[in-house]
Amino acid sequence: MDLKEVHSFILNFLLKKVDMNIIITKNSEETRSIASEMAKNILSVQSQDKLAVVIALEGVLGAGKTTFTQGFAEGLGLKDDVRSPTFVILKEYHMELSDKNLRFKNFYHIDCYRLKDEKDIKDIGLSEILKNPENIILIEWAGNIKKALPKNCIKIKFYYISENKRKISIQ
Fold it and tell me: Percent of the chain, pLDDT > 70?
């Protein structure tokens, strides 16, 4: 799947025309690129949603979740060095409004690897973060807090195929 096809798929997905798709990436650069395109598409969709956009990532260690997150942050235009907040759980980044981004002000990167269940996430104020339509929230190890996730979140699963190759399922 080339970037034009990825762009079209993501735009269709965001507009609810597609239920699921599979993407195979051959290296980390492709994973980052797909994530960057997804972020750009999210910024370009003019929505009147009254809740944050939530992207829930799942996959084993080394499957590509953090690489995807870094590419996603690049697509949002963030210049910060994005790393998994495994020990702090949550990291907030402020975004600049522009002609490409008329809605979103904050990007939250949450890593639930160390959490046992959704009770552990309440202390960071997730429910308030989810209610703000100016937020984009990307959650690694989202399965650890699945009961706290909104029903309309974008679910992405990563599968390790080989040292460099990954299967990415978007639902």
Answer: 83
The type of residue at 162 is: S
pTM of the model: 0.85
Q: Is 115:131 a contact under the CB 8 Å cutoff?
A: no
Residues sharing a CB contact under 8 Å with residue 17, sequence separation 6 or more, in sequence order? none
Tokens of 3: 């970037």
User: What is the pLDDT at residue 1?
Assistant: 45
Q: Crossing angle of helices 65-75/28-44, nearest 10°? A: 40
What single-letter DSSP state applies at residue 168? E
Q: Which of 148, 143, 146 is nearest to 158 (CA)?
A: 143
H/E element holding 136?
Answer: strand 135-140
